[in-house]
Amino acid sequence: MSDISWGLWQLLLKGVWITVQLTVYSAALGAVTAFVIGLARTHRRWLVRFLSGAYFEIFRGTSALILMFWMFFVLPVGFGWQLAPMWAAVLTLGLTYGAYGSEVVRGAVAAVAPAQREAGIALGFSPAQQLWKIVLPQAWPEMVPPCTNLLIELLKGTALVSILGVGDIAFGASLVRNATTQSAPVYTVILVMYFVLAFVLTRGMRAVERQAKAGIGRPPAKRASLFRRAGGGRPATAVPGAGAGATGRGEPR
Amino acid sequence: MTFDWSAVGDFLPAFFRGVLVTLQALALGSLIAFALGLVWALAQRSARKAVRWPVTVLTEFVRNTPLLVQLFFLYYVMPEWGVTLSALATGVIGLGLHYSTYTAEVYRAGIDGVPAGQWEAATALSLPRGRTWTAVILPQAIRRVVPALGNYVISMLKDSPMLFAIGVLEMLGEARQFSSQTFQTVEPYTVVGVAFLVIAYPASLLLRALERRLAR
């Protein structure tokens, strides 16, 4: 580890900053995508449901890395749109993980008891008011734990950008490896860096979850170990099987 | 935008070589993930803290760090320790190890889902511990987690292009090579992207059907 000089450490730290930026921007784009697509998938019109369903299947069905290559190499040649590498990466990650997130949103919205919506109708709420004032406040706490898993997956997904030359942690590591000709120290260091980032993210989301649950008068979920997230899987990849027991709902479709 | 179908034709032989490598990596990776995941799940139920703790720490660490970096770690660090494997073998180990931490959670949920009465019945029949696991608990636990395991196989398929980063010539690797030789980028990447959809979508439909059957 002593082989890594201060200049090389700076490379890695700069990489951490890029990774954090990538995660934040992609998460923001992903959240918007997840809500728009997830709600569109519960829409009354079949055309809206069909289009949003197609989006979900396409972005869930293909690999994020392939999509990233496509954004980097096919868009400029085929369509003449050259995106800055950072934004192409954010776009890919946001759209992909937004598709996964849309399943979380859809499931949580579908799990709100139908009587709640009916009460809204009976009280003369408009559909938008029903959504904002009745459905989403109750669905939100249900969304947080699976969203935590997705955020971790997103954080891990940001490492892909290093293949395409965006200077994140993994990219910094390849530079350091070339400089020191030793792989074990630098790769150990960056694995720990990713782990710490993931840990901070989990802890932060746990606070969000506690607050969200308190908002509708429910106690926070009990957890066994230092780090265990409910279900421990990629909930949206999965049709809710055993791994996604955290969301605890069937297939209402 | 011009889409050159003849370039697609030229790419196809290399593409099918890539598909074969991808499927190989996927099959072997799944085997490792299924086996190792069961080992982790059982170890985490061990009565001994000295077994439980290291396994928990290891699986949490592997699950919360990127597969890509783990692949680099295996690919560059193992030779420094005197273990030199081919790129494909390294990739298979990396995929299998990474996903074993996910399948471990799946098995854990499956085992937790077996009713307590089954354990009690096994005790009442004074079945030995090994036989309780192999004849009573695991058959029931695994049966109900098959769809969830299948989902991770699909996830693994979608992560398999990462093997290209350590030099495995799977689908994406072949596409990259083809495009750098012929300067045609649109066609190979599009073909590979569509191929993923064509494989992953029917597979997920199949799993949904399977789950509906098993859920009854």
From TrEMBL, chain A:
Keyword Oxidoreductase annotated: no
Residues covered by the ABC transmembrane type-1 domain: 16-202
GO molecular function: transmembrane transporter activity
Membrane-traversing stretches: 16-40, 52-73, 182-201
Keywords from the UniProt entry: Amino-acid transport, Cell membrane, Membrane, Transmembrane, Transmembrane helix, Transport
Entry annotated with the keyword Membrane: yes
BP GO terms, sorted: amino acid transport
Biased composition range(s): Gly residues: 242-253
Gene3D superfamilies in the cross-refs: MetI-like (1.10.3720.10)
Membrane topology: Multi-pass membrane protein
Domain of life: Bacteria
Location of the region described as Disordered in the Swiss-Prot/TrEMBL record: 228-253
GO cellular component: ATP-binding cassette (ABC) transporter complex
Cellular localisation: Cell membrane
PANTHER family with a match to the protein in the record: L-CYSTINE TRANSPORT SYSTEM PERMEASE PROTEIN TCYL, MEMBRANE COMPONENT OF AMINO ACID ABC TRANSPORTER
UniProt record similarity statement: Belongs to the binding-protein-dependent transport system permease family.
NCBIfam families in the record: ectoine_ehuC (TIGR03004), HEQRo_perm_3TM (TIGR01726)
Annotated protein name in UniProt: Ectoine/hydroxyectoine ABC transporter permease subunit EhuC
From TrEMBL, chain B:
Top-level taxon of origin: Bacteria
Transmembrane region(s): 20-43, 81-99, 189-210
Coiled coil segments of this chain: none
Topology versus the membrane: Multi-pass membrane protein
Subcellular location(s) of the protein: Cell membrane
UniProt keyword annotation of Transport present: yes
KW Transferase (keyword) present: no
Keywords from the named record: Amino-acid transport, Cell membrane, Membrane, Transmembrane, Transmembrane helix, Transport
Domain ABC transmembrane type-1 residue range list: 15-207
Similarity-based family: Belongs to the binding-protein-dependent transport system permease family.
PANTHER family to which the protein is assigned, alphabetical: L-CYSTINE TRANSPORT SYSTEM PERMEASE PROTEIN TCYL (PTHR30614:SF0), MEMBRANE COMPONENT OF AMINO ACID ABC TRANSPORTER (PTHR30614)
Protein name in the entry: Ectoine/hydroxyectoine ABC transporter permease subunit EhuD
Source species of the chain: Streptomyces celluloflavus
